[in-house]
Amino acid sequence: MIQIIEYNGEPAEVFLNRAEEVKQDVSLVVSDILTEVKSRGDEAVLDYCQKFDGSRPESLLVTSDEIDAAVAAIDPELYETMQLAAKNIERFHMQQKRSGFVDTPSDGVVVGQRVLPLESVGLYVPGGTARYPSSVLMDAIPAKIAGVQNIVMTTPPDKNGNVPAVILAAAKIAGVQTIVKLGGAQAIAALAYGTQSVPKVDKIVGPGNIFVATAKQLCFAQGIVDIDMIAGPSEILVIADDSSNPVHVAADLLSQAEHDKLAAAWLVTTSRALALKVQQELERQLSLLTREEIARPSIDNNGRIIIVSDLKTAAKVANEIAPEHLEVSIEEPFGLLPLLINAGSIFLGHNCPESLGDYFAGPNHTLPTSGTARYSSPLSVDDFVRKSSYIYYTREALQGAAEHVIRFAEHEGLQAHANAVRVRVDK
Length: 427
What we know:
This protein is α/β, with parallel strands linked by helices. It has three domains: 3-19 and 235-362, Rossmann fold (3-Layer(aba) Sandwich), CATH 3.40.50; 27-227, Nitrogenase molybdenum iron protein domain (Rossmann fold), CATH 3.40.50; 394-425, no CATH class.
């Protein structure tokens, strides 16, 4: 049963109960996989497919016929829902698109910034206990809006060497054409180094297990590819008061607890009565869940109900925890919004469950976890661009700046820097 705690102003560490993922010595295993894929390409990749996925596809690449067959095979209503979700995601992320700028601060001087799309991006879509077509949309659509021309999606095949139809249908909607039947660290290696079948990419985005996360970290550390983030277990924090419905609050806490035994769910409330009702409601709803064996340890081990004196204190606690998902389940949520500064995504009011954001509303559901919302952001169009600046000075403008540049360079002991200016302005 979830634990109830009275908050008395102590630091968040006292009651912060993020689960640490079981640490495994996987670095050596992953390093070997990276080395093998780098040296042997497709042959190594297929060997790992056989070893880890139980299948050895005849071709690593999904054909256009397979994609078309997948679209024809899935429920038409589900396909329509995914199309509507894609429109919402596209509408939201279009607001993030930006161009560069040009500035002319004085005569003869032009400075500016260019915003350019990455040339190629890899999307990792995990398999395992659940498949998430929503993640295909959330990862691919911002990349397309940014202008990325080459998007390569990898996802583990099933025992028969096939990718689930719903994943392929989501890729079709999002405009992903290159799809690789590949999962695990070997997929990250293939994207980072390139193989005979898998194009090398500039950046890899998408969550995965500890082997995938370690592979992303190691490839990034080698300087061969950029990554988005290292995703930890799912999290939700709900701020609630007497106006909140305990049935709704419990359901929302469980919406993240069912992801992973290591997921964390917090309720921060001003109401002791609500705290007790939610505690009881969690037990009732847990017994009805098909994924109870996952959700129950998450709630029992990593869940907390924290009773606070007022909503301002609730905001303080939420900021210290910096959750992935933050629900503000009160009558006037916009009044509290200015106080909430550390959260991946914020859901306002009684009619905005976290699952609305996961699938349909439009904002991205790839969010910072493990408290990293203090300094990082949801996946966005910005993740798929790079920026470069440019400078232009006329000879007269350089002469006007020369004395200052030379003085600065010589102060730092960099004579050649100073000379690069001096040779242009000395007569």
